[in-house]
Amino acid sequence: GIKIATIGGGSSYTPELVDGFIKRYDKLPVRELWLVDIEEGKHKLEIVGNLARRMVEKAGLPMKIYTTLDRREALKGADFVTTQLRVGLLDARIKDERIPLSHGMLGQETNGAGGLFKGLRTIPVILDICKDMDELCKDAWLVNFTNPVGMIMEAVNRYSGRKKAIGLCNVPIDMQKAIARMLNRPLEEVYITFGGLNHMVFVTGVYVDGRDVMEEVIDLWGNQSVKNIKGIEWNKGFLKQLGVIPCSYHRYYFMGKEYLEEAIEHYKENGTRAEKVKKIEEELFELYKDVNLKEKPKQLEQRGGAYYSDAACNLICSIYNDTRDIQVVNTVNRGVLDELEYDEVAEMNCIITKNGPVPVSVGKLPKAVNGLLQQIKSFEIAGAKAAVTGDYDKALLAMMINPLVFSQSHAITVLDELLEAHKEYLPQF
Ligand code: G6P
Ligand code: MN
């Protein structure tokens, strides 16, 4: 049987994961699922843990759910470790989104100044988990969903010895589902290539029945978006010239002004996305408490990360069974994307083997997106370096090379305010 340890187990997303493991039990016999959280998350952890127990019981499976605050005990002998933690909880996200916005910058949890700070808070924790894993479950795989996934995986790759680590996001699977739906085909009949970075990934090709249908898909593509980002329509002429399909998050760069205005409007009426998520979470936990609830509730689909368990559980299942099917993950690109260095992390199609993901060719990205790609990659690297050193100037460098910041004086103000606001979670500074 398999032992899984999930760090940040009290997350409202956990029923997704449990649902994914239940569905795949035949192929992926998870005998022990350890949900780990911290003292402040204890209450949520118990609610989610009990729901997980009811789900497993209803399915009639011998999967044991453990809830604990002892991370080391959970890691001991684990086969897979998943990370879905949020340092500072949603209150920290509110600050990441509000403070930049109050200085005229897009406030976002994984992009721009907010994304940098989420990285600064999270990277030391993830590196600590890597250290514990080396001691307690050396051969386990780390599957990280914690944002910002790109920066975190860059940090794991550069500053931990851990090679068995994979970053995951639901954006590719979301786009796959949208494309299959618009082509009226089941997912399995459509082959899609993805290349780029996390939250900066492009569809580079779509194939059905041995035919290249990319042009057709570009024609149909417009306002599709993940739940957390308003889907402002892409201009057709622009997409055709670009020749690849941008993901939802690209809108922050190619339509920065629109999204800044949108964020300001949204803020006036509803507060930040984080505040909205806080409300959704409260509702979700009310539902989770209901002892008659024995499955993942529909309402979970209001969250931007809906369906992430499909990505996570498919990945774990394919590693375990050495399936060698193709999935989109974040890993060292090994020279396959020639825009990036050999050992830089990319989000791309990979063959999933028991030895890990092996990147496959996804074609070439157009010159028109290369500048942005390089800029975000260097931002991820600079952010990771700032996180491990706790050096103020290195953090300023990361801020100033981010295209959503575009001001030296505001960069300094926002950096100082965020350092102050988050100081209890930034011991390295
Ligand atoms: C997306 C991203 C996730 C992110 C989520 C935010 O789908 O891929 O990485 O965490 O949205 O959603 P939320 O509901 O928390 O705003
Ligand atoms: Mn994501």
Summarize the biggest pleated sheet.
Answer: 6 strands, parallel
Q: Please write the string of helix (H) and strand (E) elements.
A: EHEHEHEHHEHEHEEEHHEHHHHEEEHHH
Trace the largest sheet across and list its strands: 3-2-1-4-5-6
Tertiary shape:
globular
User: Helix segment count?
Assistant: 16
How many DSSP-defined strands? Answer: 13
Radius of gyration: 21 Å
Bound molecules: 6-O-phosphono-alpha-D-glucopyranose, manganese (II) ion
Q: pLDDT average, as an integer? A: 96
Q: Helicity range of the residues? A: 40-55%
Set down the secondary structure blueprint.
Layout: E1 2-7, H1 14-23, E2 30-36, H2 42-59, E3 64-68, H3 71-75, E4 80-83, H4 89-102, H5 112-136, E5 141-144, H6 149-159, E6 165-167, H7 171-182, E7 190-197, E8 200-208, E9 211-212, H8 214-220, H9 236-242, E10 245-246, H10 251-254, H11 256-270, H12 273-289, H13 308-321, E11 326-332, E12 345-353, E13 356-359, H14 367-389, H15 392-400, H16 408-421
Parallel strand pairs: 1-2, 1-4, 2-3, 4-5, 5-6
Antiparallel strand pairs: 7-8, 8-9, 8-10, 11-12, 12-13
The protein binds 6-O-phosphono-alpha-D-glucopyranose and manganese (II) ion.
The site of manganese (II) ion has 5 residues, from loops.
Describe this structure in words.
It contains 16 helices and 13 strands. By secondary structure, the chain is of the alpha/beta class. Strands 3-2-1-4-5-6 form a 6-stranded parallel beta sheet, with helices on both faces. α6 crosses α14 (367-389). It is globular and about 55 Å long. The model has no long low-confidence stretch (mean pLDDT 96). It binds 6-O-phosphono-alpha-D-glucopyranose and manganese (II) ion (MN).
